[in-house]
Design a protein that fits this description.
With 590 residues, the chain is α/β, with parallel strands linked by helices. It has 4 domains: 90 residues, DNA polymerase, domain 1 (Orthogonal Bundle), CATH 1.10.150.110; 103 residues, 2-Layer Sandwich (Beta Polymerase, domain 2); 65 residues, DNA polymerase, thumb domain (Beta Polymerase, domain 3); 238 residues, TIM Barrel, CATH 3.20.20.140. Helix content is 43%, strand content 14%. It has a 7-stranded parallel β-sheet. A hairpin with a 2-residue loop joins strand 8 and strand 9. It starts with a helix and ends with a helix. Bound molecules: 2'-deoxyguanosine-5'-triphosphate, calcium ion (2 copies) and zinc ion (ZN).
Length: 590
């Protein structure tokens, strides 16, 4: 449902820009309400908007005639004219100023009006001059916080989160495939390897009409600058519709570089292998080739002394691995971490193996989906089990459930499950692991839940030793099935806990607890290297979407890619087990 999400982001930006340009309250509120409503929709609005079906759109809760018209415009033209017009009035740099945590539109407008601040750089200069301190409600502490936030944003680099890069790459591949003459198009690089952040997007194509391809690539609406446009390679800067409101305080670049390479049809496999990398994997492969009297490059694998026009393998990646005498290495394993030396590579987990989500929120805490909406989505994905795990009582901001509310919810979930066919819905909790390692409900209550996911949420700056102790205590608790996002890190934003991961893995095996890969692209925690250690030790792993919004179910792929990078096989992943195996494990802890 990328359409809903992107449209929601556009409306959120419209609201912000209206506010910055001094529009009236009514228009601002209408745009930000539209943004929220779009995000909350459980139906994909793209087909309706494409079909110009105003009636069907306005029949949905929260969508009025005005929003419907703009959605249709967005489906047809890829943009909304109101958004475009406002973008001409509001400097892009000012939107970046607005993305600094702790700065709201009112203050930013004042900075723009009174101090002519139009970028983060301007803001830094004005703070240094002392003029920001003279604005109303600007205490020393507030300014200190702004400076710290800017420093953090600048230090977290300009790599893009996997979950933000993938849809961009997919849409460009689709765009290029539609250009006359294109025979093949595929993204390569770190993105194809499923890395958690992406430096730039690499796209390879085969085409009969290179001029046309270059033209189509360099004139995409989001291109802000053409960096290179040669015979075989074009590079552009590409503007991202900035991260959604939900991730307002997430540091993400405003633009990313995209490289397009036009490769000869006959060396497609060799080029794909070369540009997928990783560099270390390529180096190791080339060494292996040299040892066998061969040369490997982006045009093919050649026997030394042979005719350079007559490669041994070059059309497919598999052909190259085969000719080198090793197993074909899936892109996610190309890290030079033993994949070339391992005779039989594992049968990696795939998206289609996942049959359950065991960590999801509903409107009872901070989720946006009702029990029924979430169950319907889970069922439509072919899942056999869905666990409802709302927040526990200490998570006040997340509207965590007090014991009474939880008891009522358990009954409601069980009753719902009896009436809902084709999916088993179970009652659980994402219970806070408190700072001392104890859990946020008493043992009797935990023990009547069908599933307990225990996660750290607060106190994430603890020292490593204390973090280990805290998490070990939760693992040892007899009612706990899964440790949710074990470190609590947020990629490029918060380091999170740094426990001794090997100790956690050993304890998880001893107490038959699964460690979670949280599939949200902002978390991906456990990270790939932790998964690898867990898998080598034989520890159970869960891959959960931590669903709050309908679109969160789409994050599953990022969890699966992270699992693959950790050599995860379906037998160790509890979400890939069949219904009876999973439920027998859940019950074994009761
Ligand atoms: P990124 O963009 O920083 O997230 O990481 P990659 O891996 O996508 O790196 P990138 O975009 O610089 O290059 C794409 C691939 O091309 C890389 O994974 C391997 C290949 N490649 C690029 N430069 C070299 C090189 O100097 N030597 C070798 N062996 N391979 C290279
Ligand atoms: Ca790259
Ligand atoms: Ca590149
Ligand atoms: Zn959660």
């Amino acid at each position: 449902m990328a359409f809903n999400q992107t449209a929601s982001n556009l409306f959120s930006q419209i609201a912000q820009m209206l506010e910055l340009t001094g529009s009236d309250r009514f228009r601002v509120n209408a745009a930000s309400k539209a943004s929220r409503e779009l995000k909350a929709q459980t139906t994909d609005l793209e087909p309706l908007a494409t079909a110009e079906d105003v009636k069907a759109l306005t029949a949905l809760e929260g969508i009025g005639k005005g929003t419907a018209t703009k959605l249709i415009e967005f489906a047809q033209t890829g943009s909304i004219s109101e958004h475009k017009e406002l973008s001409e009035q509001v400097p892009q740099g000012l939107m970046e100023v607005l993305s600094i945590p702790g700065l709201g539109p009112k203050t930013v407008k004042l900075m723009w009006d009174d101090l002519k601040i139009e970028s983060i750089n301007d803001l830094k200069n004005e703070i240094a001059k002392g003029s920001v301190a003279e604005l109303p409600r600007m205490g020393a502490k507030t300014i200190e916080n702004i400076v710290a936030a800017i420093e953090f944003m600048e230090s977290s680099g300009d790599r893009l989160h996997l979950g933000l890069a993938l849809p961009v790459a997919q849409s460009i591949v689709e765009h290029m495939l539609q250009v006359k003459g294109t025979k093949k198009a595929q993204y390569a690089g770190s993105l194809r390897r499923g890395e958690e952040t992406i430096g730039d997007i690499d796209i390879l194509i085969v085409t009969d009409d290179p001029d046309h391809a270059r033209e189509a690539f360099t004139t995409m609406p989001a291109v802000t600058r053409v960096l290179a446009n040669g015979d075989t390679k074009s590079s552009v800067r590409y503007e991202l519709s900035s991260a959604s409101e939900r991730f307002k305080d997430l540091s993400t670049p405003a633009e990313i570089q995209i490289d397009l390479r036009i490769v000869p049809a006959e060396s497609w496999g060799a080029a794909l292998a070369y540009f997928t990398g990783s560099k270390d994997h390529n180096v190791a492969l080339r060494k292996l080739a040299i040892k066998q009297g061969m040369t490997l490059n982006e045009y093919g694998l050649f026997r030394n002394n042979d005719d350079r026009d007559d490669p041994i393998a070059c059309e497919t990646e598999e052909g190259i691995y085969l000719a080198l005498g090793i197993a074909s290495v899936p892109p996610t394993l190309r890290q030079d971490r033993g994949e070339i030396q391992t005779e039989e590579l594992p049968h990696l987990i795939e998206l289609s193996d996942i049959k359950a989500d065991l960590h999801t929120h509903t409107t009872d805490s901070d989720g946006k989906l009702s029990l029924k909406e979430s169950a319907t989505l889970a069922k439509s994905r072919g899942f056999h089990t869905l666990a409802i795990t709302d927040h526990s009582q200490s998570s006040a901001i997340a509207n965590g459930l007090k014991p009474d509310r939880l008891k009522k919810q358990i009954k409601a979930v069980h009753k719902f499950n009896d009436s809902f066919d084709g999916l088993t819905v179970i009652a659980g909790s994402e219970v806070d692991i408190l700072v001392d390692g104890s859990l946020d409900y008493d043992d009797d209550l935990l023990n009547v839940l069908d599933i307990v996911v225990a996660s750290p949420h607060a106190g994430l700056r603890a020292k490593p030793k204390q973090a280990t102790k805290r998490l070990l205590k939760a693992i040892e608790h007899p009612s706990v099935h899964i440790i949710g996002h074990p470190t609590g890190r947020l990629i490029q934003r918060r380091a999170g806990l740094e426990p001794d991961i090997n100790e956690l893995i050993a304890a998880a095996i001893e107490h038959d607890v699964a460690l979670e890969i949280n599939a949200h692209w902002m978390r991906l925690d456990l990270r790939d290297t932790h998964v690898r250690a867990a898998v080598e030790a034989g520890c159970k792993i869960a891959i959960n979407c931590d669903v709050h919004h309908a679109s969160d179910y789409d994050n599953l792929i990022f969890g699966v890619l992270t699992g693959q990078r950790g050599w995860l096989t379906p037998d160790l992943c509890v979400n890939a087990w069949d219904h009876d195996t999973l439920h027998a494990w859940l019950k074994s802890k009761r």
